[in-house]
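Review form for a predicted model. The reviewer records the input and the model, then writes brief findings.
Reviewer: anonymous (R2)
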Amino acid sequence: MTGTPAPGAHDLDRPHDLVGIGIGPFNLSLAALAHGLRHGEGPGGIAAVFYEQRPAFHWHPGLLIDGATLQVPFLADLVTLADPANRWSFLNYLKARDRLFPFYFSEKFHIQRAEYDAYCRWVSGLLPGLHFGHQVDAVRWNPERSLFEVDFTRLDAHGEAESLGRTYTRHIALGIGTEPFVPEPLKPLVEAPAAPVLHSADYLEHRERLLAAGHITVIGSGQSGAEVFLDLLRARPAGAEKIHWLTRTEAFAPMEYSKLGLEHFTPDYTRYFHALPEAVRDGLVPQQWQLHKGIDADTIGAIHEELYRRTLHGGWPDAVLTPGVQVRTAGRVATTKVELHLEHLQQGTRSRLTTDAVVLATGYRERPLDRILAGLDPCMRRDSSGRPRIDDQFRLVLDPALTGSVYVQNAERHTHGVGTPDLGLASWRSATILNSLTGKELYPLPRRTAFTSFGLERREAPGVPGQAPHLVPLDDRC
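Model under review:
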């Protein structure tokens, strides 16, 4: 590996307008919408590059289970809800693959996860300015040049450091995504190699090993837990399924999918949530778990149908589904088994479960920004809980002396609400960022996106078609 290179004059004379860190769906959306604006090609020419440490794009490869679909319609692709005519749309992907008519006749509104992954890989393989195998190590502000310095390491095919690099940019977009969450009692088991205890993010990689286990336990009742349970159930022989499915939640509950409920994933609700006091936002997020942590109704139906099918010749399947249970502690028994110490939250009762394998469908957490932004820490403004403050344009609130902006993607649930990780808001957020970055309305965005008026402070003029009337606070009424 070479030493840190000295930047050449060319690097400083022509800094980038935007450097994206991480290439998941959200920064890929930003790159796709920025593409038409690159190097003066569009009305607000923008020079953008994106860095990703992985060797290629892959979206949750461990959960691309056969038949598993997205929970959002195909219109929630990288660009369509901001720019329907964009060349990087899902429909254009189908056209390029000569699959448009088959898709039309399939009448599918929700596509399979594997197809969404293939679509994103198609975009990432053709879109210029994407640099895989590049690990960003540090970000600093250079006050003399009024630019961000971004240090990175080029990685070889094995993920080993090959050389160092540095680039300069006016703005940054962080899209480093989330990471699997493992509850504290189970962390020692994941780190030991004997009986398989793994996160659902790695499910497909270990599926055959799991199926060979005598008894399997799935922990977690979200969509991932349901899909893993269903896949294992279908693959196990009738009468000898030997599967436990446990969750802390009070029920294997369906996701809120009513039309007005879905309006919580609109720009209107995002703006409303952002304007609420911090304490109110913090109280709302856990209350709204069923908006994003429940199970798709079709998946629940498929699970019940599969269980019912196994009763047709008498008897019940050897599958236990128990909500309202938490894992207090866990340990290994004779190196090949796992013992879970359980507590029922409503009954207050405790028991032990011995199993041969555990799949943790325990969700994901936002990756902390502190490591990659350590060089900017003195300049970052934080809320009362020590979290980064993020404005309504998805920018970190920084010291005014920094004239550049750091935008964040999927790291702002505490300020922007449950829609933060939702694919349906990806293109709107990307367009908002590009409009903010350039100071121009390059992508006109809708003023209103929901029938619901979430607060009492709408200020649209009365009588304008399609707009809610002015609402007067109760205290001001005669």
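Findings: Confidence is low (pLDDT under 50) at residues 1-10, 39-43, 461-478.
Further findings: DSSP finds 13 helices and 17 strands in the chain.
Recommendation: see findings above.
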